[in-house]
Amino acid sequence: MGGLIALLLGAVLIQLSGANPLQAYGVMLAGAFGGFRQLTETLLKATPLLIIGLGMTIAFRCRVWNIGAEGQYYIGALLGSIVALKLPGLNAVILIPLMLMAGMLGGVIWSAIAGLLHLKRGMNLIICTLMLNYVGILLVQYAARVPLQQPDGFLPESAQFSVAAQIPTLFGTRLHLGMVLAVLLVGGVYLLLWRTPLGFQLRAVGSRLSVARCAGMKVDRSILTALLLSGALSGLAGILEVSYTYTRLKGDISDSYGFSGILVALLGQLHPIGVLIAAVLFSALMVGAQSLNVVLQIPASVAEVIQALVVLFVLAGHAISRQSESE
Is 140 exposed, middle or buried (0-12, 13-18, 19+ CB in 10 A)? Predict the structure, then answer.
């Protein structure tokens, strides 16, 4: 119901923009799912959203408000890129796993800084993770412009990765192995959260902190673990995106995936399957918005408003439903 209300309000915005809402939604739908090329583009954009959304699901299930996915994404991309640039002669079978591990390490390091500031110094976790986003982005922009810049280059970007450092594609299409990994992570995160003692502890801390403390659970360790796991997945998304889409480190390597991944996790009701569906929906809105702009000359910002309305009304509907059940 919330999604339907959001689409109705979006129709009003489209009408005010001078276009037919039904035609506009048809263009968006065709732009996202109207053919193999369009579907491929939607799935490509859904991949980083899904991985980051899964990481945020782990954190938010533990009530760890990690708003720093964008910064962790950037630092993961940075460390993974350093491995790719410094070890270009390695075989892909060795090099790509090393890059992915370095990317995850980057996300872990960046989230650990916020976690330690929160646990050891009592700093607000939301503010810490949020501010580290900007530091991470600026650090990558500096790295791409100075120490890692392509020799004799003028643009803020590194040299192109070797072929061995680029994520392999599948069956001659633009689909790549990173998408397979993202889908496997859906099952992995589900098993972690609902089938392991660690997952039970993370959810217990997130559900009732005081009860978890009384039960003798190590709350601080759980908070840090959830934060590090979410950071690792954000870093993984960063190096996957750079390795496939850009094939080099640039100053701008994100389409606000870190921030959108947070919304994807919330829209997916913090469940891996829900996050998978939400990531594809969000990606379809992003890809469809481009078609909307090209075909009907409607500003892409209208589609961004529709995205925000969908998230807002779906979450509001869920909150109202839970309140009604509790009464």
Answer: buried
Helix intervals (H) in the chain: 2-16, 21-33, 36-61, 69-86, 92-121, 125-145, 177-195, 197-207, 209-214, 219-241, 257-267, 272-296, 300-326
Predicted confidence (pLDDT) at residue 82 exceeds the cutoff of 90: yes
pTM: 0.92
The residue among 224, 210, 188 whose CA lies nearest residue 64 is 224
Q: With both helix axes pointing from N to C terminus, report the angle between 21-33 and 272-296 in degrees, rounded to the nearest 10.
A: 120
With a pLDDT cut of 70, the percent of the chain lying above it is: 96
Question: Does the pLDDT value for residue 17 go beyond 80?
Answer: no
Report the alpha-carbon distance of residue 160 to residue 321 in Å, rounded. Answer: 51
At 250, phi and psi to the nearest 5? -125, 170
Transcribe 86-113 into DSSP letters: H-TTS-HHHHHHHHHHHHHHHHHHHHHH
- Give CA–CA dist 135/132, Å, rounded: 5
Judged by DSSP in three states, 157 sits in strand
Distance CA 80, CA 76 (A): 6
Task: Flag whether pLDDT at 301 surpasses 80.
Answer: no
Q: Is 7's pLDDT higher than 90?
A: no
Tell me the three state secondary structure of residue 271.
coil
